[in-house]
Amino acid sequence: MSNTPHALPEGSQITVCEVGPRDGFQSEKTIIPTARKIEIANAMFAAGLRHIQVTSFVSPRAVPQLADAAEVIAGLDRPEGSVLSALIPNLKGAERAAAAGVDAVHTVVSASETHNLKNVNRPIAQSLQDFAAVADLMHREGIVVEGGMATAFGCPFEGVVPPEQVAMIARRYQDLGAKRVSLGDTTGMATPATVRAAVQAIRAKASEIDICLHFHNTRGVGLACVMTGLAEGVSYFDASIGGLGGCPFAAGATGNICTEDLVYLLEESGYCTGIDLERLIAVAGLTQDTIGRDLPGQVLKAGPRLRRYDPDLTVTATG
Ligand code: COA
Ligand code: ZN
Fold this sequence. Notes:
Layout: E1 15-18, H1 20-24, H2 34-46, E2 51-56, H3 69-74, E3 83-88, H4 91-100, E4 104-110, H5 113-120, H6 124-141, E5 144-150, H7 163-175, E6 180-184, H8 192-205, E7 210-214, H9 222-231, E8 236-239, H10 259-268, H11 277-291, H12 299-302
Parallel strand pairs: 1-2, 1-8, 2-3, 3-4, 4-5, 5-6, 6-7, 7-8
Helix pairs in contact: 2-11, 4-6, 7-8, 8-9, 10-11
The structure holds coenzyme A (COA) and zinc ion (ZN).
Zinc ion binds near residues 186, 214, 216 and 245.
C-alpha cells in the first residue's frame, strides 16, 4: 500500500462521519421516538464523533421515520467544531434544512437512472439541474454542500455503473461548488477494484473536489474497500453505528459498514479518529436496545482487542 502515490501515512487524521441516525433509522419499520434519537446523537458527540448525518429533510410520506427532522436537530448539544448534516433531495428539503440550522446538506442523486427514479421520482438530469438552486441557496446561507451519489458502485436494477458516469456527476458537483462528493454503495456492490477505478476516474475529471466513501457491508467487503480508499488517499468515510442502515427504495439493501468496527480498524492501523472506542461501543449498545434486535457490528459483540477475561470463569479442557 505504501508504494501507491496517494496512500495516507500512519498518523493521518481520518474523518468518520456517523450516518446511522439517517441511513439506519430511515430503514427501521418501527419509528424511534424523537427523544431517543436525540439521546443517541448526543451520546455520539460525547464519544468524540464530530460529523453526524443526523436526519433527512425528505417527503414525510416517503420516509415517515424521519418526519421529526427539525425537532431532532433542535434537541442536540452540538460541540464546538461539530458538523451536523442532513440529507436533502430537492430545494424544499434544502430550505427546511437551512431553517433547522444544519451546518451541511447532503444532496442525493443516483448514478443509475432507475434508482434515481425509484428514490426521488425524477431523472438524473432533472436532479442535477435542480441542485443549482440548492447550491445557490446554501452558499448564501454559508451551509456546506456535500454531493451525495447513490448506486455509485453498481445498481440493483441496472447492474454495472461505469466510473465515467460517477466522474461526470462528481464534476457536476465540483462545478456547483460542492465541498465533497460522497460515493454511496447503496446495496454493497463495491469491491476494492471498483473503488480504485471510481476514485481514479474522479481525480482525472474533477481533481478539486474531496471524496467521501460510503460503503454498505452487504457482501462482507466493506472494510476491505476502506483500505483501498486509504491507499488511494481518501480520508473521509461514512459508517453507521452497530452496522445499521439500508435504503427502502433499493432492493437488497442492508447495513452500512459499522462505525465501531471502522474506528477499531483505523486506530489499530495507526490512524487518528479522535473517537473513544469504549464510549462508541456503549452508544452501539444503546442503539441495539432501542432497535430491539442484534446489530451486525462485530466489535460491539467482541469488545476491543485487549478485552481480558477471567480465566477462573472459563472452562478448562480436560481429557
Ligand atoms: N420535504 C417535505 N415535503 C416535501 C419535500 C421535502 N423535501 N419535497 C416535496 N415535498 C412534498 C411537496 O410539498 C408535496 O406535498 P403536497 O402534496 O402536500 O403538496 C409532495 O411532497 C409532492 O411533491 P413532489 O415534488 O411532487 O414530490 P414527489 O412526490 O415527486 O417526491 C421526493 C419526490 C424527492 C420528495 C420524494 O421522492 C422523496 O422524499 N424521496 C426521498 C427518498 C429517500 O429519502 N431515500 C433514502 C435516502 S437515499
Ligand atoms: Zn447508505
